Amino acid sequence: MKPATAVVDVLGIYKVHTEFYASPAARKTIILVNGSLATTAAFAQTVKYLQEQFNVVLYDQPYAGQSKVHNNHSRPVTKEEEAGILLELIEHFRVDYLQSFSWGGVAAMMALSQRPARIEKAVITSFSPLLNEPMLDYLEKGLVDLKAVDGGSLGHLVNNTIGKHLPSLFKRFNHRHISSLDEHEYRQMYAHVNQVVHMESHCQMDCLAAIEIPLLFVNGEHDEYTSAEDVRLFAEHLRDCQFAIIDNAGHFLDMEHKGAWLQSRAVLLGFLQGPAMREKAYRGHPELRHAIAV
Predict the structure, then answer these.
(1) Contact 246/273 with Cβ under 8 angstroms?
(2) 241-246 and 121-125 as β-strands: parallel, antiparallel, unpaired?
(3) What CA–CA distance (Å, rounded) separates 80 from 207?
């Protein structure tokens, strides 16, 4: 089913391209928050199972994808603005659940710390509160390519690091996308990464105590950049959080292979809709039962 598309005015500054996937039986709506350099297309695999149960909202940041043509790119969009955009879209689409991927977790958790009344639960995937050694090495190399506006080299870097577990077809799509971005998109990412690597923590831990809703953190077993071990630090700062590990998966989780897609589906639907939905998702796939580690 094709989504209904619209351009939404946010913050009185930006125009944001949105996609609304309606599910006839859905009582709840979920919004998905992209990682860096990504567009709504990055969630193609995720929408397939979420739309079974929910209305799904996707959007492109003002500097990316189909939002680009509607905005002035004279300066980078700040993380505070990204959080503000998310909060306005939550109200606009009357959203109940939130899911973020990778660097989208920064804006997502900043937004959640403001306690949006509509949000009942959130899922944060492929994210960590720590910048460990592999991630710092990746970011520092990325800064060189971003500053030089060398999209080809940056595409190879992504595929050889956080994207190394992707199938070859996805790697080709990934490289084609990253190597053909507009100059302002590289400037946007450079500004963000440069800020991140000079911060003691890219995740504002002191704000997390304000988050009261249940959170689920999902990481890949083989993701050394946002590791399942590092993410457990959140348990020291959040009131209600759970953790899940997707077996034999790296950073891109449900994009990497069918088993990871099935596990991701079971974990997310189980968390958002309760044990009954988890059992239904596992039916016929008993090998997935150990995917959840609470």
Answers:
(1) no
(2) unpaired
(3) 13
Report the SS3 class of residue 62. Answer: coil
User: Other C-beta atoms within 10 Å of 39: how many?
Assistant: 18
pLDDT digit string, tens, across residues 183-204: 999 999 999 888 877 765 555 6
Take residue 174 and report the two structure tokens written for it. 């990934």
4-130+201-291 topology per CATH? Rossmann fold (3.40.50)
- Dihedrals φ, ψ of 205, to 5°? -65, -30
Report the C-alpha dihedral over residues 128, 134, 136, 139, rounded to 10 degrees. -100
Cβ-proximal residues to 156 (8 Å cutoff; 6+ apart), any chain = 175
**Rounded distance between C-alpha atoms, residue 144 and residue 109, angstroms:** 28
Scored b (16 or more CB within 10 A) or e, 227-252 reads: bbebbbebeeebeebbbbbbeebbbb
Q: How far apart are CA 244 and CA 247, in angstroms?
A: 9
What is the C-alpha to C-alpha distance for residues 125 and 202, in angstroms, rounded to an integer?
16
Beta-bridge partner residues of 14? 10
Spatial CA neighbour of 39 closest among 62, 7, 11: 62
Q: Is the dihedral of CA 253, 260, 225, 181 positive or negative?
A: negative
Report residue 20: phi and psi, to 5°: -115, 110
Domain ranges of the chain: 4-130+201-291
Q: What is the pLDDT of residue 287?
A: 47
The structure's pTM equals: 0.91
Helix (H, G, I), strand (E, B) or coil at 15: strand
pLDDT at 114 over 90: yes
